[in-house]
Amino acid sequence: MLKTVLKHYQGFHQEQHNHNSVGTLASGIVYIQMPKGATATTFINPMKTMYNSCEYKQEMTMYTPTVQEGDCVIFPPWLEHRVDKQYDIAGTRITVAFNISNN
Q: Distance between terminal CA atoms of the chain?
């Protein structure tokens, strides 16, 4: 299992990426510290191009869950995700990202 502790201060962000690699079965994020104003991870719908002609396309292209400190979100490693710029946070946003693999 690979894990990384991420600290986001005001103004920081994480670019869009995935955790897809040979042997990776699942990925996850544990929200350790979520100060007021901090946002969760935004997940990108892999079928977003299909929704270009859909009436509700904006709502269907991405999803940002509502999380609290201590929450854990598990997702498939191929799912693109990012952390939007943290503008008005009152402290440090701390998460632990991990991958579960069979090797």
A: 9
Closest CA to 31 of 6, 63, 62: 6
**Residue pLDDT, tens place only, 70-101:** 999 999 999 999 999 988 888 999 999 999 99
Which 3 state secondary structure label does DSSP give 59? helix
Count Cβ neighbours within 10 Å for each residue of 23-41 and write b for 16 or more, e otherwise.
Answer: ebeebbbbbbebbeebbbb
- Rounded distance between C-alpha atoms, residue 99 and residue 14, angstroms: 17
All domains in the chain, ordered by first residue: 2-101 (2.60.120.620)
Alpha carbon 60 to chain centroid, angstroms = 16
The residue type at 24: T
